Amino acid sequence: MPNIPVDVTPSHPLDQQPTIGLIGMGAMGTMYARHLADAGWKKYVPCFPSLSLAKPTFPSLKNLRVPGITVHADGHAVSRISDFIMYSVEAEFIGRVVSQYGPSTKVGAIVAGQTSVKAPEKAAFESHLPNDVHIVSLHSLHGPTVSPVGQPLVIIKHRAPDESVRIVENIFKCFKSRYVYLTYEDHDLVTANVQAVTHAAFLTMGTAWAAQRAYPWEQGQYVGGIETVKVNIMLRIYANKWHVYAGLAILNPSAKIQIDTYASSATELFKLMLAGDHDGLRQRIYAARESVFGVKDTEQGSSTPIFLTEDVLDQFTIGGSTKRPGYSPTGHSAPKNNSHLALLAMFRMWIGVAEYLCRSVSRLDAAINAAVYDVTHRSDDLEFVVAARGWSQCVAFGDFELYKDRFMQTATFFESRFEEANKIGGAMIKAIVDSNTPVIT
Fold this sequence. Notes:
alpha/beta; disordered C terminus
């Protein structure tokens, strides 16, 4: 990349700044465009500014009026003039798009992808990009409505010298994200462990609750504390686009394995519940607790707060405490006991909720006792296991239309609650981010 210093910033002379191009303008592409433009990246060459955006047919571009951005009709113009090019395209279509525009890539350019699944992206770049361009890929591990500040931003050095990585780091310094360095393969394994399984858990919760044909938090269940997180995140997921989750689950080989394991784990735990095998259930849960968190049977775990308190979480209950300050829908700081089968089967850390449950002996024992001796949530647990198996089979089939139909059927049931959930859920996530708890959506 001639004339571009590795420590380049928006304050460098224009002839030393990279021309930045984005191909694919969905929600994430638009988010990237806005942050880069706001940071002042706008090197001008004859007739057009440097931040060049393809795919103008996306609805999100209708309201995109940012100084320093020119929208091009297709990715060929972007590829030919840009020193740094980022493809922000669904994993399902990345091969088709790169095969079309990749051959036009400028000699010596740095190319990145922003897909949530890297196996198809890697194959597309290796097949369709010229050998004289560099590959330094990316993935922001958060949604388009979440601030990138402090969030993980994965950087993958695949086919590039260190200097190209430095340039990418400096381009995205304005995001104030936390850089995480992985390979393509490690990325997909990590996202399968953290995102794909987490999404499967909350998708399953929604399907199970929809099967009951009632909003459980309006019936005195699933309010306060951990229940508040479960409801808010479930609603935020179903208010999103189905393809965001379908691609990550279906196209990631590691995700298929992990989601199947999750469904099997939920089934096996439920069988122990039905058998009334308290000791067997406790032994299995505590063995997993020690394996994942390194905490012995009788240990409480870290004394450092890793989650918001029950009273704080009560403020974000749908249809409850946000309307009456100080009101706790549970009547006290401790919510009703629940088996938390969804979390026990997952043992992954999304907003720290599984860790919050599992590090506390009192909370974990209460969940185990409820699972075996309290049938209040037993019908919900049954629906959950059925739904978990269904989602696992859906992913195993690799059918995007089946995934879409299954997703939209549940989303339609909850649609009337999305507006309130987005407002309250957004406030809850901001509170969690401000408390320095990691969020992955």
